């Protein structure tokens, strides 16, 4: 018996998501900060750690710097050692073979020599873009029990949302646990099932090698959802659906990202943050060196999560504040998510905004409208902005990253984009 | 060219600090938590790091386990790499010497092999007991410029406090011409901060002269000023010896002032959150609907449902609904249940305060603790590590609850001012 791991996990972490706009201008979706101190990919990485799966590769190509920085040497998730580790696999130039990843499955294909070197008994391929807690071991044991070629985790979504996902028709073979996938359709308007694929796949490696080879030889597109799974269905491979019933934050749009953050708040929040055992890289942005939140005389805080390194002198309600954020006296922050190092000036009022790192709101700035947050759009401010004092910005607006402050009008109407 | 790297640092971290009472029952004074998520030694250690020195020996003696776990590999302070390091130097039995450290100078003398194995121009001796920020390299440069044999870091304190310190009288050029250790009658207000720079060769010679000289302040400095070059390096920033419960409480309260002179983060002080050895990272502090917090420091992992005023909370403290915590220092993972009140109290880690309990109550702050009248006499009550306070208990002023007290140890519902469990 050796300590050699039987499972290799590969995280697809390279994508930028158009609908997340300015938040992914400078980083892949997986590196977007979430919940006051973590990054989205911390959820997948912590799930792997908590599942005892510690041989991990990360496939990334879009603006990887922030992600690579975040992963560090992998020690934050205890993934260091002879058989433990996180390998970041960017696209490379090689003999007779040099190109960008042309899709999610091509990213794996281009790294098959890495996979074959590790020679796992099963290959777990998952997206690094989602907020959820899952013990992958249960799914892997189901996969082995069924001697499946592919097992995919699926989650029931509202029927009218099903068209956004790859959807599987799962038979009732094993009731609540899962069953054989009878039909699979990718982002189709007329699906009858609403078991959506969570982009958590467990493959039998030999089968995947064959399918990937055929896909590269015969197809023009290289995505797991669009190409690989339909091909496996056509080839009548053993494809199973594993039914997942917990919380899943897809965070594919600004509103969903905002909502997933809000799901951390309240008396009985859908995300039991403290129980999910999430780790992050505390050295990234040196958050480990932050002092406790300093709260002034006239501060008022309710229903909020605030991490070390913030100074609060004003009012904060139903919001999430990352380290280094300052809320001055008389300022009001409501229903908002302020990523690292925001500075909210005296008397400024922020309603339902997401503000990326390093933004200064001058005194008297007003953003969004007070009222029911679910009925108004989120305003998103890109990083490194200075919003001059007394500027008024509506709801559902977007301000691009690093816009010079004189280019931001004194009044921005709801829904406008400032670039 | 000389640089900070030519200086070897020896950090004295062996002191008992017995006046901190229950806080030093399980740990040495340098590892007592401070400002929520730091420990006292983080201040000295970070000053060393920020001043550019690379090698540090930490001399331990009393209950070193928590300190050793905290220092780990020195990584939090960047003391890792081929030429950097933090080395723990406990007392050891050897062929010739086998003894506990008898004093500051004796501790250094027992580690001559460490000094010789790490060649240096100067030796900087620091205490791990103080809250301050200081550019120690500026002091080394002063020492070099003065061609001094010894330089002592000194600052002006109120005359009424000089009796706690080594006191020096200097001439115009900054040379120390007279020295008195803990003087009963004040003749000066210039106090030693326990920071010394020695020329390495000079120190080795001085230590070899007379093995009965075991303390810097009592033996070495008086002897040296009579014949060698001993200078005072003036310091005028914030510096506190938090060796008493009152001083410890005051320094924590200093953090909360609007124009606070202490700011660990901007000072570049680094904690070591990993020494908590938690499985998951602490999530941001949660402020529930209906909570009320003002003038306080709240660390990650806290859950606040009640009211917190003028207090410092370490990570993971839970303050239930209807609670009121005022003027207090609450260390890691204490749980204060619904409706309990805590006033003017220092509470060690993982204390459970039952529903409706009242800790620190009454106007009579002048009745000192009957067992330790010298430790508690200003009204502050102390609760030791992992004590369990039964629901509905009322505890007065200057009280001490020993660590690991269980509910059954409370024979009465009321603990009067100055009493101890």
Characterise this structure.
The complex is a heterodimer of chains A (419) and B (421). Chain A is of the alpha/beta class and 419 residues long. Chain A folds into 2 domains: 7-262, Spore Coat Polysaccharide Biosynthesis Protein SpsA, Chain A (Alpha-Beta Complex), CATH 3.90.550.10; 292-418, UDP N-Acetylglucosamine Acyltransferase, domain 1. Chain A is built from 8 helices and 35 strands. In chain A, the strands form 7 sheets. A 7-stranded parallel sheet of chain A has the order 17-20-23-26-29-32-34, with no helix packed on it. A 7-stranded parallel sheet of chain A has the order 18-21-24-27-30-33-35. In chain A, strands 16-19-22-25-28-31 form a 6-stranded parallel sheet, with no helix packed on it. Chain B is an alpha/beta fold and 421 residues long. Chain B has helices spanning 40-51, 65-71, 104-109, 112-117, 136-145, 200-209, 216-227, 245-254; strands at residues 7-12, 33-34, 38-39, 55-59, 85-89, 122-127, 130-132, 150-156, 166-170, 176-181, 190-199, 230-234, 239-241, 285-287, 292-294, 296-298, 303-304, 307-309, 312-313, 318-319, 324-326, 329-330, 335-336, 341-343, 345-347, 352-353, 358-359, 381-383, 388-389, 394-395, 400-401, 414-415. Chain A binds chain B through residues 35-38, 46, 266-267, 273-274, 276-280, 282, 288-309, 316, 320-321, and chain B through 35-38, 76, 255-256, 258, 263-265, 269-271, 273-274, 279-281, 283-301, 312-314. Strand 16 (293-295) of chain A pairs antiparallel with strand 16 (296-298) of chain B.
């Amino acid at each position: 018996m050796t300590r050699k791991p039987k499972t290799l996990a590969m995280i697809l972490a390279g994508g930028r998501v158009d609908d997340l706009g300015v938040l992914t201008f400078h980083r892949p979706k997986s590196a977007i900060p979430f919940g006051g101190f973590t990054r989205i990919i911390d959820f997948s990485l912590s799930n792997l750690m908590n599942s005892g799966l510690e041989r991990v590769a990360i496939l990334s190509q879009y603006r990887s710097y922030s992600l690579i920085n975040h992963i560090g040497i992998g020690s934050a998730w205890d993934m260091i050692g002879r058989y433990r580790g996180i390998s970041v696999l960017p696209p490379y130039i090689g003999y007779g073979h040099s190109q960008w990843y042309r899709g999610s499955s091509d990213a794996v294909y281009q790294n098959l020599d890495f996979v074959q070197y590790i020679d796992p008994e099963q290959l777990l391929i998952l997206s690094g873009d989602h907020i959820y807690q899952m013990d992958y071991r249960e799914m892997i044991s189901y996969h082995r029990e069924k001697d499946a070629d592919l097992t995919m985790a699926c989650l029931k979504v509202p029927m009218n949302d099903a068209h956004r996902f790859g959807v599987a028709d799962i038979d009732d073979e094993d009731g609540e646990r899962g069953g054989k996938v009878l039909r699979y359709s990718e982002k189709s308007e007329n699906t009858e099932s609403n078991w959506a694929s969570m982009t958590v796949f467990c493959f039998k490696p030999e089968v995947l090698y064959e399918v990937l080879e055929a896909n590269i030889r015969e197809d023009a597109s290289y995505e797991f959802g669009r190409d690989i799974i339909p091909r496996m269905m056509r080839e009548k491979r053993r494809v199973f659906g594993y039914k997942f019933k917990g919380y899943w934050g897809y965070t594919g749009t600004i509103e969903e990202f905002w909502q997933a953050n809000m799901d951390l708040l309240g008396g009985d929040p859908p995300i039991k943050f403290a129980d999910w055992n999430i780790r992050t890289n505390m050295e990234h942005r040196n958050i480990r060196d932050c002092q406790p939140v300093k709260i002034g005389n006239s501060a008022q805080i309710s229903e909020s999560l605030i991490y070390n390194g913030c100074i609060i002198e004003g009012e904060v309600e139903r919001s999430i504040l990352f380290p280094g954020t300052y809320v001055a006296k008389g300022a009001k922050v409501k229903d908002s998510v302020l990523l690292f190092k925001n500075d909210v000036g005296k008397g400024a009022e922020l309603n339902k905004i997401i503000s990326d790192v390093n933004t200064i709101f001058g005194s008297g700035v007003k953003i969004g409208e007070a009222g029911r947050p679910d009925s108004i759009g989120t305003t998103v401010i890109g990083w490194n902005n200075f919003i001059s004092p007394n500027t008024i910005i509506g709801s559902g607006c977007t301000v691009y990253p690093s816009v010079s402050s004189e280019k931001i009008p004194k009044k921005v109407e709801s829904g406008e984009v400032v670039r | 060219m000389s640089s900070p790297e030519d200086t070897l640092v020896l950090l004295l971290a062996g002191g008992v600090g017995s006046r901190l009472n229950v806080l030093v029952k399980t740990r040495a004074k340098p590892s007592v938590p401070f400002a929520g998520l730091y420990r006292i030694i983080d201040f000295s250690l970070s000053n060393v790091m920020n001043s550019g020195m690379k090698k540090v020996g930490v001399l331990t003696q009393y209950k070193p386990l928590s300190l050793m776990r905290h220092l780990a590999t020195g990584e939090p302070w960047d003391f890792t790499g081929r030429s950097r390091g933090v080395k723990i130097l406990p007392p050891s039995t050897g062929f010739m010497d086998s003894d506990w450290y008898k004093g500051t100078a004796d501790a250094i003398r027992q580690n001559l092999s460490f000094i010789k194995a790490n060649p240096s121009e100067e030796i900087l001796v620091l205490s791990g007991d103080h809250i301050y920020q200081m550019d120690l390299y500026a002091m080394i440069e002063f020492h070099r410029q003065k061609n001094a044999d010894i330089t002592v870091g000194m600052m002006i304190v109120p005359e009424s406090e000089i009796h706690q310190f080594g006191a020096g009288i200097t001439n115009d050029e900054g040379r120390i011409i007279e020295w008195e250790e803990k003087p009963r009658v004040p003749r000066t207000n210039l106090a030693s901060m326990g920071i010394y720079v020695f020329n390495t060769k000079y120190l080795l010679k001085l230590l070899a002269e007379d093995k009965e000289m075991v303390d810097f302040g009592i033996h070495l400095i008086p002897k040296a000023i009579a014949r060698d070059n001993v200078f005072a390096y003036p310091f005028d920033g914030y510096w506190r010896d938090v060796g008493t419960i009152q001083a410890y409480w005051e320094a924590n309260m200093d953090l909360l002032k609007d124009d606070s002179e202490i700011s660990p983060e901007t000072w570049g002080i680094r904690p070591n959150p990993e020494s908590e050895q938690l499985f998951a990272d602490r999530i941001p502090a949660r402020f529930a609907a209906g909570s009320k917090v003002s003038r306080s420091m709240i660390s990650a992992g806290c859950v606040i449902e009640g009211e917190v005023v003028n207090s410092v909370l370490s990570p993971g403290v839970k303050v239930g609904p209807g609670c009121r915590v005022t003027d207090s220092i609450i260390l890691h993972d204490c749980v204060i249940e619904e409706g309990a009140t805590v006033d003017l109290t220092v509470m060690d880690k993982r204390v459970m305060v039952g529903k409706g309990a009242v800790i620190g109550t009454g106007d009579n702050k002048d009745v000192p603790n009957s067992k330790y009248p010298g430790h508690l006499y200003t009204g502050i009550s102390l609760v030791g590590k992992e004590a369990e306070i039964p629901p509905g208990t009322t505890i007065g002023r200057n009280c001490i609850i020993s660590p690991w007290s269980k509910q059954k140890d409370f024979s009465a519902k009321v603990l009067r001012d100055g009493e101890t469990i």
